[in-house]
Amino acid sequence: MRITRRLDTPTRCATNSNCPAVFALASGDVAFIGRVAPELRGTLPAGSGVGDGEHLVVVPRDVLISAGWTPPTG
């Protein structure tokens, strides 16, 4: 895997922590830096799950919007 570019608008990150980001991968997939949130596992909708090697990650809304995401309405 290889990161090809950053998709969100970079923010200053002086401490190398709390620095969420969105990246495009050469494969066409997207990678995120966010906060791992295992406390949300019990609230996943039916039919959803977190598999081996996966993490439930929270990425701030403003980071996703700066990467071009359009929030759902309603």
Topology:
Layout: E1 3-6, E2 21-25, E3 30-33, E4 35-36, E5 57-58, H1 61-66
Antiparallel strand pairs: 1-2, 2-3, 4-5
The gist of it:
With 74 residues, the chain is mainly β. 8% of the residues lie in helices and 23% in strands.
Strand content: 15-25%
Percent helix: under 10%
Structural class computed from helices and strand pairing: mainly beta
Main beta sheet strand tally, sense and closure: 3 strands, antiparallel
Low-confidence stretches: none
Say what oligomer this is. single chain
The count of strands amounts to 5
Gyration radius over CA: 14 Å
Q: What is the spatial order of strands in the main beta sheet?
A: 1-2-3
Number of helices: 1
Distance between the termini: 36 Å
Q: What overall geometry do the principal axes of the alpha carbons give?
A: globular
- Element-by-element helix/strand order: EEEEEH
What's the pLDDT, averaged over the residues? Answer: 91
